[in-house]
Automatic annotation (TrEMBL):
Organism lineage string: Bacteria, Pseudomonadati, Thermodesulfobacteriota, Desulfuromonadia, Geobacterales
Record's protein name: Bidirectional formate transporter
Record bears the keyword Transmembrane helix: yes
Species in which this protein is naturally found: Geobacter hydrogenophilus
InterPro entries xrefs: Aquaporin-like (IPR023271), For/NO2_transpt (IPR000292), For/NO2_transpt_CS (IPR024002)
Chain ranges passing through the membrane: 30-51, 63-87, 108-130, 154-176, 188-211, 231-261
One Gene Ontology CC term in the entry: plasma membrane
Length: 274
């Protein structure tokens, strides 16, 4: 009888071995998969914005956040089941480097390509949604601007800590999805942690590549001068600290922790060049 799921030791080993794909996968393939991942996360972010545009007034702030996290989880479900390269999930490549399966140079190369591909994919969906004019109905404009402004006004340290907490949960979702052996199990593995990080108000770098540019596009179109909402603040006040936090959350608290518990001391392969 086939196992319904992998043990934690088997899961981190599968994640580490899967990291070897960066040794043979072409850069162009990585670019395409990264673009798609940015698109998928943006779909989740867009859906969360639509669903919660007026929900708090009817069901309260807490339930509205629960709804937001519930529908946003679609993004990681698409990434996991359809296959794509997501920067936050790829912080788990650090486990492969710790085990000597790939070099740290390959990890950094992958991260750079993937985060740029994620950015392009997210911006593409933000632009398409802007051009769709679907934001012109309901409370979409005010809600989208409010999300973007709040994110751009976060202090650096606050954004960094929220980034750590976010990717701790995201990488646990990827960890559990790897352990699951069927699609239903992978869906459930994605849902819980992603719902939790969104409902809690944590910060995800790739999601913010949709949320904040959407606010910037709308503010420019409507001539609304929102405090702190600039492209400079998007990159330096939000994306930079959140990305650093996401790296720390995934590398330290998931990849390194489970590598240390289950794989440290096992025989290593010769460290590859690159």
């Amino acid at each position: 009888m086939e196992k319904r799921f992998l043990t934690p030791a088997e899961t981190i080993r599968a994640i580490v071995e899967n990291g070897r794909r960066v040794l043979t996968q072409s850069r162009l393939r990585t670019v395409v998969l990264s673009f798609l991942s940015g698109v998928y996360i943006a779909f989740g972010a867009e859906l969360a914005t639509v669903v919660t545009q007026d929900a708090a007034g009817f069901v309260g702030q807490g339930i509205a956040r629960l709804l937001s996290g519930s529908v946003f989880s679609l993004g990681l479900m698409l990434v996991v089941v359809c296959g794509a390269e997501l920067f936050t999930g790829n912080t788990l490549l650090s486990g492969s480097a710790l085990q000597g399966e790939i070099s740290w140079g390959k990890v950094l190369e992958n991260w750079l390509i993937v985060i740029l591909g994620n950015l392009v994919g997210s911006l593409f969906i933000a632009w398409l949604m802007f051009e769709s004019r679907l934001w012109s109905s309901g409370n979409m404009v005010d809600h989208s601007l409010r999300i973007a402004v709040v994110k751009c006004q976060l202090p650096f340290g606050v954004a960094l800590v929220r980034g750590i907490l976010c990717n701790w949960l995201v990488c646990l979702a990827v960890f559990m999805a790897t352990a699951a052996r069927d699609v239903a199990g992978k869906f459930l593995a994605c849902y819980g942690p992603i719902m939790a990080f969104v409902a809690s108000g944590f910060e995800h770098s790739v999601a913010n590549m949709y949320f904040i540019p959407t606010g910037l596009l709308l503010s420019g179109e409507l001539g609304r001068n929102e405090p702190g909402l600039t492209w400079g603040n998007f990159f330096m006040a939000n994306l930079l600290p959140v990305t650093i936090g996401n790296i720390l959350g995934g590398v330290v608290f998931v990849a390194s922790a489970y590598w240390y518990v289950h794989l440290k001391g096992e025989g290593r392969r010769e460290r590859p060049e690159g």
